[in-house]
Design brief:
The complex is a heterodimer of chains A (291) and B (298). In chain A, 35% of the residues lie in helices and 28% in strands. By secondary structure, chain A is α/β, with parallel strands linked by helices. Chain A has a 6-stranded mixed β-sheet, with helices on both faces. Chain A has a 4-stranded antiparallel β-sheet with strand order 11-12-10-13. In chain A, strands 2-1-4 form a 3-stranded antiparallel β-sheet, with helices on one face. Chain A is globular, with a radius of gyration of 21 Å. Chain B is mainly α and 298 residues long. Chain B has one domain. Helix content of chain B is 72%, strand content 0%. Chain B has 14 helices and no strands. In chain B, helix 3 runs antiparallel to helix 4, helix 3 packs parallel to helix 7 and helix 4 packs parallel to helix 9. Chain B starts with 11 loop residues before the first helix and ends with a helix. The chains are: A alpha/beta (291), B mainly alpha (298). The interface between A and B is large, with 50 and 42 residues.
Chain lengths: 291, 298
């Protein structure tokens, strides 16, 4: 049973279509990065998956319909919507008590263990904590839940680099194992590139790119082309070209490494570069189609 | 609780062995209500403050009153109870209006919805505050306050050499407390249910300013009815809801407690207004539960 399975998932707010017929299949044990520009429909899609918004089309999360069975789904799934949603009046011990009171899979000792590694006091109110500490607290609470699916929607928004790094490190080291599934959206793509097992680009409510990281690394190569060989490189049909300090960097899809090595320095592109390439090609194609 | 365990969770495999705890519906309800009390401390602070103020006022009255009185000392039990109950009622109104609106305004609804607690449980736990917690709490506070008043006036009477027996002559303390409990359970617990249901509904729905949305529509309905039909049935209905059912035998005074005590349980339970009110409350609540599912943070 796939962890998340969607077919023709669609959500419109009035005349604005936020999610426009998404087909999605996320297997157990994957860490999926959902990457897209602002307003691409990432959050709406995640909200549908979490039972926070109604939708059209078919959607099954852990075998359940999230909209009608949110309460049951949340026994096996949990999410961090963004760092700002922990209630500001709540004290740390109240959060622990409450989680232990209502969540069947919450392990209080585990949460206390995570918190012991931070400087967060039990009697502190959320409003007294810094943004980074709130994220630490939320992560400690969520990681102490033995969930099958964890959804993170911009979990590190507004945090400094140290907290961001720590956040993903503890997620990987202390939480993730092959039986859990994590879906994460973020704008800091570079920081999670090594974390992900799968990546998906979403734009204007549609999935425009979907592949596993193994495939990503074997398929895409980036070459900093020597100026004299630029014509030869362009003949190999790069999917994108950009200029950095007067040198051309070309991105290739499914071109042999040996062939490219002759043209210049070869390396695996960053997800961000591929994202820019895919999106600019797409908008170019869209404009071309309109013409 | 405060000893932090330094044991890093060993292996993920181990965590899977631990069977999930069984969480009953009543346990979820209990923690949901506790959560409300953590967030809204005014629920118990305000009635306590009202009790403190009324005791202080009574002390002033005792000090000002002439030392050698021969008529029985008049203890303002009912005023104290009314002050505490009234405070609780006002707190209940503001609480209900904020209950489902505040969590959308500060986006914490996303946090609450990430936990396995249904919208029904959440709304019911929020209804329990004005309907059960506040009345019972203010009853307990009122009884203690009245008892302290009784002790204080006994002390004053003993000090001035009078018999304490005159205090009990009007109404026994126990009987009075029982009447107060009856009043609380019937009026605050059952009769006012549609009022709180309406406030929770508005709280779940209002895009902003729930206070205005809750009080403006009744006002407009009253005005429109007055202009169009020159009647005021709607206003009468609201008054009826606020003042409680009328007893068949008129009470000695206009005091609400006495009106209620003249109304027997059988009379109260056979008042159609009670059941109509409860049905309306149920409709409002069902709508509020549904709205909580659909509403997103503001």
């Amino acid at each position: 049973m796939p962890c998340i399975e969607a077919r023709g998932l669609r959500k419109a707010f009035g005349t604005t279509v936020a999610v426009d017929g998404i087909d999605l299949r996320v297997e157990e044990g994957r860490i999926l990065g959902l990457i897209g520009p602002n307003g691409a429909g990432k959050t709406t899609a995640l909200n549908a998956i979490l039972g926070l918004t109604s939708y059209q089309g078919q959607l099954r999360v852990l075998g359940r319909d999230p909209w009608t069975e949110r309460e049951k789904l949340m026994r096996d799934a949990c999410f961090i919507a963004d760092v700002a949603v922990l209630p500001r009046w709540m004290r740390v011990w109240q959060a622990l008590d409450y989680f232990a009171g209502v969540h069947p899979r919450f392990d209080r000792a585990k949460a206390e263990g995570f918190l012991a590694k931070t400087t967060i006091g039990r009697a502190s109110k959320v409003r007294e904590l810094s943004k980074g500490m709130v994220a630490q607290l939320h992560l400690a609470l969520v990681m102490a839940i033995d969930a099958k699916l964890l959804v993170l929607d911009e979990p590190t928004l507004g945090l400094d680099i140290l907290y961001r790094k720590q956040f993903y490190d503890s997620l990987l080291n202390d939480y993730f194992d092959r039986s859990r599934t994590i879906v994460v959206t973020t704008h800091q793509v570079e920081e999670i590139q090594d974390v992900l097992t799968d990546v998906m680009f979403i734009n204007r409510g549609r999935i425009v790119f979907d592949c596993s990281m193994e495939e990503f690394e074997s398929r895409y190569l980036e070459v900093m082309v020597n100026p004299e060989q630029i014509a030869a490189a362009r003949a190999l049909k790069p999917i994108h070209e950009r200029q950095v300090f007067g040198r051309s960097i070309l991105l290739f899809d499914r071109v042999e490494r040996q062939q490219l090595a002759a043209l210049g320095e070869v390396r695996t592109p960053s997800i961000a570069d591929l994202f820019v390439a895919v999106l600019s090609n797409q908008s170019g194609a869209a404009q071309g189609g309109a013409r | 609780m405060t000893t932090p365990s330094n044991t890093v969770p060993q292996s993920p495999l181990e965590s899977q062995i631990t069977a999930p705890a069984v969480i009953t519906a009543s346990r979820r309800m209990y923690w949901s209500v506790r959560r409300e009390l953590w967030e809204h401390r005014s629920v118990y602070i305000a009635p306590l403050a009202a009790a403190g103020v009324s005791l202080l006022a009574f002390l002033i009255a005792l000090m000002l009153s002439p030392r050698h009185r021969h008529e029985p000392l008049d203890i303002p039990y009912e005023f104290a109870a009314a002050l505490i109950m009234g405070t609780a009622f006002i707190v209940g109104i503001f609480y209900s209006l904020d209950a489902l609106y505040g969590e959308r305004r500060d986006r914490s609804i996303l946090f609450w919805k990430s936990l396995p607690v249904s919208d029904l449980t959440t709304v019911l736990s929020k209804l329990a505050i004005p309907l059960i917690i506040l009345p019972l709490l203010s009853f307990a506070i009122a009884v203690v306050t009245q008892f302290v008043m009784l002790l204080l006036s006994s002390a004053v009477l003993l000090g001035s050499g009078q018999s304490v027996g005159t205090l009990g002559s009007r109404m026994s303390f126990f009987h009075m407390s029982l009447m107060l409990l009856y009043h609380i359970l019937t009026v605050h617990g059952l009769w006012y249910a549609p009022i709180y249901g309406w406030l929770l509904l508005i709280s779940a729905w209002a895009p902003r300013a729930p206070f205005i949305w809750a009080f403006l529509p009744p006002f407009v309905i009253w005005g429109v009815e007055k202009i169009a039909f020159r009647t005021s049935h709607f206003l009468g209905m609201l008054q009826y809801r606020l003042t409680g059912p009328e007893p068949s035998t008129p009470a000695r005074s206009g005091n609400m407690m006495e009106i209620m005590s003249a109304l027997t349980p059988v009379q109260f339970l056979s008042t159609p207004g009670l059941w109509v009110g409860l049905a309306v409350a149920a409709i409002f609540l069902a709508a509020a539960v549904r709205l909580r599912r659909y509403r997103e943070p503001i």
